């Protein structure tokens, strides 16, 4: 291992110090809560227990690596933490995820076997499980999709794909640069249907009303919800776990790394015309403004090097592309 890799690995372990046993888990009378999932999970944890005044939060929390970063060597650390947990909040994760027992049911089962007394659910028997959905909301960004391409990695500049650009790269019929109002609403309705389906399938907390209620503030990208949505979900977690107290805005924008363009025509189609100030034509990536045309040109060059990605992405999201063609 190189010195750079050692430094990176050491820094990562320090970042997750309580998880790796480098620092003690906070000890007091409050329930210990862990959130298992992706980057949305960490933002939820921040709101629940690491806000402006962590000592006044209703729970203690421990920052853990996102599920896609956990390795076999991390499992003993995860199990040691699960032996202390009172409330396990988890996004739906498939069993045997990446060949490891990291699925929601698997992690919940190991937490339950600890047999903790006085869990948040009351009456002992292990950690109280609260399932929260993975938030995907395309209403504000109807062209934006996520395409997993392990062999090719991510496109340059931003890790998102645009159906209009995918169509160009794949030689498919071009999609309108500005979608019709009917198309925008069709994409929104697809997001509603998909979220409600996942809520029912996984028994997760409801979120559709939080997203529709937040309007133009609902998301920064299709998978990065805004603070208003995350705050609402955090409050529902506390309620579902039977915990008193509230959460506060952390005073900073969570999931702030990428903000995608928002078309005024999209806001108007969604009945958010009074929020036209939220429309912006460019990307904001780590605080730097980035022209959407520049992103498209860079992605087209990348698709030329990875032609299989464009075709697979368009096939994967064919229903969304068809909705936008209306």
Supply the key terms.
326 residues; alpha/beta; single chain; globular; 2 domains; 4-stranded parallel sheet
Task: Tell me about this structure.
The chain is built from 12 helices and 11 strands. The protein is α/β, with parallel strands linked by helices. The chain has 2 domains: 129 residues, no CATH class; 144 residues. The strands form 4 sheets. The protein has a 4-stranded parallel sheet with strand order 2-1-3-4. Strands 9-10-11 form a 3-stranded antiparallel sheet. The protein has a two-stranded antiparallel sheet with strand order 5-6. A hairpin with a 2-residue loop joins β10 and β11. α2 packs across α8, α5 packs parallel to α10 and α5 packs across α11.
Task: Report the radius of gyration as a whole number of Å.
Answer: 21 Å
Our count of helices gives: 12
**Mean pLDDT over all positions:** 91
Let me know the number of strands. Answer: 11
**Spatial ordering of strands, largest sheet:** 2-1-3-4
* H and E order: HEHEHEHEEEHHHEEHEHEEHHH
Topology:
Elements: H1 3-15, E1 32-36, H2 39-49, E2 60-61, H3 75-82, E3 87-90, H4 104-112, E4 128-131, E5 144-145, E6 161-162, H5 163-170, H6 181-202, H7 208-214, E7 219-221, E8 224-225, H8 227-240, E9 258-259, H9 264-269, E10 283-285, E11 288-290, H10 292-305, H11 307-316, H12 318-324
